[in-house]
Specification:
Layout: H1 6-12, H2 18-23, E1 41-44, E2 51-58, E3 61-69, E4 79-81, E5 88-90, E6 94-100, H3 103-107, E7 111-117, H4 122-128, H5 139-162
Antiparallel strand pairs: 1-2, 2-3, 3-6, 4-5, 6-7
Helix pairs in contact: 4-5
Length: 163
Amino acid sequence: MEPMTEQQVRRSFVNCSKGEAGAATLPRDLADLPWDELEVLGWRDPKAPLRGYLVVQREHGPVGIALRAAESRMSARRSVMCLLCRSTHPGDAVSLFTARRAGAAGRNGDTVGTYVCADLGCATRARTEIPPWLRDRDPVEVGEERVAELRGRVAEFVDAVLR
């Protein structure tokens, strides 16, 4: 991703009002993030624990998605896979996130949802967490493949929100 300012992040949101985007608590270290290592910027709002945000770089600029986490949590005794980065975690480390669709559909209450790492740290995990069944391969190659796959799945989710 290209480095972004607070204003650029707030303007990128496509499925919430300007007021909601303005009220979002952005990451404190926004200016210092390793932007060249991020395929998606994801974070939870510390002031509103059920809110989360994803921002991706698209062809015509950044696109931000406001998310809402499910109030209930899955059991930690169950293994669950994040559907974006495909990392497996205890159930309480993955959450169902929903996003209002952009435009009239979202204003009418239409939403899209998927199971995602509860901390929205998929970009880091895609590069660093190699599943056991891929550990016999070159870690750099596996990381590059996982990053490309993450980009594709995030793009599909963003497309679903924009539909």
